[in-house]
Amino acid sequence: MTTFFYIAIYVALAVFLAACAVRVVSYARAPIHLRWELYPVPHDDPALVKHGGSYFEVTDWWKFPLHVNHLGDLKVMVPEILLLRGLKKFNPVLWYSSFPFHFGLYLLIGSIAMVFVHALLPTAAVASWIVMTATVLRDLILITAVLGSALSILGAIGLLVRRFTHPKLRNYTTPADIFNLIFFIVAFGFLWAGYFLRQPSQAGPLAIAHGLLHFDRTVPVSILLAVGLGLSAVLLAYIPLTHMSHFIAKYFTYHSVRWDDEPNRPGSKIAVKIAEYLTYRPTWSAAHVGADGSKTWVEVVSSAPPNLLKKEKRS
Questions:
Q1: I need a labelling partner for 310 at 20 to 30 A (CA). Which of 42, 143, 215, 278 fits?
Q2: Mind giving me the DSSP string for 160-221?
Q3: pTM value?
Q4: 74 lies in a domain?
Q5: Given pLDDT bands bounded at 50, 70 and 90, which one contains residue 264?
Q6: 116 and 150 share a domain?
Q7: pLDDT at position 9
Q8: Full domain range(s) for residue 252
């Protein structure tokens, strides 16, 4: 049983990493999106960002290289990722459920990372600072794991209630949305039960992580905790295969759409890509566009719409 349990976790982790990599590559290779062109863009010169400007204000800006202020991006992205600042501003009611759910996940991710760091520390007689580090990590792991799973469960329940009761959310709630939230509640619920109801002789997260790293099949894992960890592993592999992979898409949405202000200079990568896109033969169901797959983008945008041509002939 322990062997199967270990293999299941390794496979789930491999699926998660592979699926995330596929998502990243697919987004990175996607055609250039229509820019928002909304300023200020946080990675511009702080002096320009301060009053809502852009590098277009600089005289002869096209003669100078574009400098990107990555610190400005971080000042916006970190609060947005950790605190969901945009959601709190524009939909504060939903934020009260969404924030604990997501922040709980962040705490769990941190807890898992610390578990494996702890498992890598030497167990033999070592320097006092390593012993102190192991002790601090053990306490932090317990706090973040318990608090993180509790917040995520409460947040998921809150989001589930909102989807069932709020008219605007209920209108476009799909069975998959309900299933995903229930999946989180059940998986983390089993983790809670497995951790707190296990016998003293049965392994906790630290011992299990050590067993995973060294493939120690003698580690005694309780059935309840094994189910919780197994469900969590399946959930981990499942997330990037669904729309919950928005944690990857969000990066590209910000940097490739919302904040993309790279100038289209002659011979640039943008110019080369656009020249390629103009040779595509789009197919749209909207008849007035005339994009039936037989004409290139250049032909579509440089010719009159079919409906207009018909009107002209009638007149």
A1: 278
A2: HHHHHH-HHHHHT--HHHHHHHHHHHHHHHHHHHHHHHS-TTS--HHHHHHHHHHT-TT---
A3: 0.86
A4: yes
A5: confident
A6: yes
A7: 92
A8: 2-30+67-258
Does residue 19 share a domain with residue 108? yes
Q: What is the pLDDT of residues 220-259, one digit of tens each?
A: 999 999 999 999 999 999 999 999 999 999 999 999 999 9
pLDDT at 1 over 90: no
Instruction: Please give the C-alpha separations between residue 114 and each of 51, 110, 143, 153, 304, in angstroms, as whole numbers.
Output: 42, 6, 11, 21, 62
Please check whether residues 214 and 293 belong to one and the same domain. Answer: no
Where helices occur in the chain by DSSP H, the ranges are 2-28, 46-50, 70-83, 85-90, 92-120, 128-165, 167-171, 175-197, 205-214, 223-238, 246-253, 269-277, 297-302, 306-314
Retrieve residue 31's tokens: 């055609």
Residues 173 and 71 in one domain: yes
Q: How many whole angstroms from its chain centre is CA 288?
A: 37
pLDDT at site 303: 79
Nearest to 5 by CA among 222, 159, 160, 172: 222
Axis crossing angle, helix 223-238 with helix 175-197, rounded to the nearest 10: 150
pLDDT at 36: 86
What total of structural domains would you count in the chain? Answer: 2
Is the predicted pLDDT of residue 65 greater than 90, yes or no? no
